Fold:
Amino acid sequence: MSEHLYPKNNVTSNNIYTTKSLIKERKKKMKEFVLDCMGEACPIPLVKAQKKIEEIETGDVLVVQIDHSCAMKNVPEWARNSGHNVEIDEVDDGEWEIVIEKSV
Amino acid sequence: MKQFFEKLGKNEYYVAVFKNPFSYVTGAILLSILQIALFAYSGNPWGVSGTFANWGAWIFEAVGGNVDKWYYFSSPGAQATLEAGFLSHTGTMSNLGIIFGALMATLLASQFKIKKIKSLRQVVAAVLGGLLMGYGARLAYGCNIGAFYSGISSLSLSGWVFALSLLIGAFLGSKLLTKFFM
Structure:
C-alpha cells in the first residue's frame, strides 16, 4: 500500500524536493545585511554600500548604519537612482539607518 | 515642554528649514548671495584657509615668536593684517561664523553627536590629509574657496587652473581612499 501511495519513480518526492528548495530560495531572498558605517565620513559609506549591493541577491535587504548627515543624502539618492526601494530611519540624534531593498 | 518639542519636531516648516538638508540648488543660491554680500562688505573675495595661517602667526606671537622675517608674512599688507589683530580680521569672523553656524545648524536639526574614532588609520589619514591640504593651500595661495570658488566667480583664469588641478587631485585621492579604506 505504501508503495502505491509513494511510487518509486519519485514524482511526489520530487515535488517535495521542489517545495523545499522553493522555501529555501525564499528564505535566502529575505536575507538582511547590515553595514556598519558609524564614524565613517563621505564618501566611504556610499562606496561601501555600492560594493555591498553588488554582492547580495535581488530581494535582499541592506541596512546601512550612518552618523554622517551627508551620507544620508548621497546614499539614498544613489540607491533610488539605481532603482532600489529605500527607507530612512532616524534611529537616534544624528544616527540613521538607510534600508535598501535590492530591487534590480 | 516635552509635548511642545514633539509637536515642533513634526511641524512642516521646522522640518523643511531646519531638519532636512537643503537641496544643492538652494545651497548654491545662498552661497552666491552671501559671498557677494561678503565681497561688498569687506572688499575681499571669500576665503577660508588663509585665515588659518594668520591664526597660526597670532598664536606663535602670543607665545613669544616672531614671524616678521617669514617670507609669507613679509608683505606690508600681511604685516598690517597681523598688526590689526584677531578681532578686526574679516576672515577670522567669517571662519568663526562657519564653525558656530555649523554647530547651531546641527543643534537645531537635533542631530548633534560626538562621533567615535573608528581606527588609528582614520586618525592618520585625517591628520595627514589636513596637513597636506593646509600646506598645499598656502603654496597655491588659496584653497577650494579662495582660489577655486572665489577665483572663478571673479572671472579669473587662475580659478579654472585650480579647478583642473583639483579634479586631478580628487581623482588620485579617491583612488587612494578606495585602496586604503575599503
Remarks:
- The mean pLDDT of chain B is 92.
- The interface with chain A takes residues 21, 106, 109-113, 115-118, 122, 174, 177-178, 181-182 of chain B (CB under 8 Å).
- Residues 157-181 of chain B form the longest helix (25 residues).
